[in-house]
UniProtKB/TrEMBL annotation:
Protein's name in the database: ATP-dependent DNA helicase UvrD2
A Gene Ontology BP annotation from the UniProt entry: recombinational repair
Cofactor names: Mg(2+)
Residues that, per the record, bind ATP: 31-38
InterPro entries: DExx_box_DNA_helicase_dom_sf, DNA_helicase_UvrD-like_C, DNA_helicase_UvrD/REP, HRDC-like_sf, HRDC_dom, HRDC_dom_sf, P-loop_NTPase, UvrD-like_ATP-bd
GO cellular component terms attached to this protein's record: cytosol; DNA helicase complex
The organism of origin for this protein: Streptomyces aquilus
Listed EC numbers: 5.6.2.4
Domain of life per record: Bacteria
Amino acid sequence: VPDSADAVLEGLDPEQREVATALHGPVCVLAGAGTGKTRAITHRIAYGVRAGILQPSSVLAVTFTNRAAGEMRGRLRQLGAAGVQARTFHSAALRQLQYFWPKAVGGSMPRLVDRKIQLVADAAAACRIRLDRGELRDVTAEIEWSKVTQTVPGDYALAAAKAGREAPRNPAEIAQLYAAYEDLKRERAVIDFEDVLLLTVAVLQDRHDIADQVRAQYQHFVVDEYQDVSPLQQRLLELWLGDRDSLCVVGDASQTIYSFTGATPDHLLDFRTRHPGATVVKLVRDYRSTPQVVHLANGLLAQASGRAADHRLELISQRAPGPEPVYAEYTDEPAEAEGAARRIRELLAAGVQAAEIAVLFRTNAQSETYEQALADAGVPYQLRGAERFFDRPEVRRAIVNLRGAARFGGNDSRLDDAPDLPSQVRAVLSGEGWTSEPPAGSGAVRERWESLAALVNLAQDFTAARSDATLADLVAELDERAGAQHAPTVQGVTLASLHSAKGLEWDVVFLVGVAEGMMPITYAKTDEQIEEERRLLYVGVTRAREHLHVSWALSRSPGGRPNRRPSRFLDGLRPGSVMTAGRTAIAGPGGVERGVTGGAAADVVPRRTQRTPARCRVCGRTLTDAGEMKLMRCEDCPSDMDEGLYERLREWRGTQ
Ligand code: ATP
Ligand code: MG
């Protein structure tokens, strides 16, 4: 712990210091990946707290993921500033909503859906629509998108077509599933993640007394990854802030990757206009990546266009040179996955920690091929961006069991042969399917095992930190972590989508599937969509500290027609020719070898979206009038989005 407020500023460069010491009025930091934005705002909070200027409990730091929030809390503790709330918009809203529900609505808040996918599956069963696992995931994503963009079921088809979304099923079916899902939720008296934000905004708008109470609690706001704030989140932020201006936002327009969910960098880029007196700081030194990685990142940005690109900032690496990025081309996807798994095994054998390696892909559907390949190669892995750790059924069951064992203590026969805490935990979790070695194969069994293994590791770390810890202490720790969604780190190679990797960093990053049709993805058609795909690749590249391995496959399946070519985003940046590696060969370090590459342009067949009748987005009535259809709303229905929110609140009041 630094011994003074000034000591907190050590280890910051002059611009970062400027951010950290600008404690009054609005502050905006515009800077590229790896320039220390997150670090600067974390130190800013710590500095303010240590200098006695900020009350820890009056600060609300908003991050993009629960993991990032957990990391920030950990850093703040290390800097001597414990007690600051670092949360996602969702978790901050959830707490407030829970607290104010009895007063605002009456009764207690409906339970949060714990297995949303299951609820969608139940909705599908009710509609007699069969969905496989992948479709279930995709339909769930469509429902989420609809809610964030305020699209009612009757409007889904039209809105999805307008937004250029590739529907996993025919849009009429999705609309039907979405409606059935909402009905089921009401029937079971549960709310989902998106409802949390919608309802919090509604309560704060509706009830000035409650808004005042929240404003009295939180006086200073800090937002990370502000380029991806959604209109709904921005509204929540404004409601929290009221007429005050102690707001510090940081972001990188070049990393806007959530516009498909309705997020927009405009709030970041227009910050100075909305806050004329704002302190604006730019950071350009990249502390994360080697010059080689930064060179590629800058190259990608140089080709970008659009509003975000107008604000790009060239990165200047502060690190010593490292290896050149490796570019590898494979005949098919399984060969690509095997190639990655083989390289990873080599890296592990060379002493690289599994937790320092990530495989990042464009779509969750790609995950399975890599899970399989890593499992076959005996490489431990963890999936990020899948279900939230403490919401996994096996984790919930395990905690219930541990709690039971803690309560029974000496009377629990399972604990008979166990003197220390980790073996007690192992004994209890054995009943849940934990084994000392991972089970063969991949998929659900393996995932469950990984969760239990993470709990065993957590028990070991916990005991290492507190040698006298009991099972009851561990259960209390787990409860606290569950409340904060602070998942344990799983020792394994990270498999994650590019979207869930933002803000994070690893020594070694494998960017896989960097082919036309994947990046950009087939359904990216407009210039804006293509630019967002480019930014996604930029986010991927800038996750790497040292080693970057970029690969693609010429066809999907073994023996398939080679109909893919490397992503257009790499044109002019990757070496002109690389060797195509089949099942047995692999491109060597540096990746550049003589040979041919080619393959026709990806055969991109856009899925046809089926036209369904236009409906009013508020009441669902079929529209025939051209003017109404343009507005997607009938004349009788209110236009203001707030009305929609009030409507939801009224609806909930009705069910109470
Ligand atoms: P992203 O845009 O990806 O979220 P960021 O701008 O938030 O990146 P950080 O994650 O804060 O960047 O920092 C990137 C890495 O550089 C981290 O490992 C951080 O500890 C390190 N770093 C940042 N600033 C400094 C500094 N002044 N001195 C040394 N290391 C630094
Ligand atoms: Mg960051």
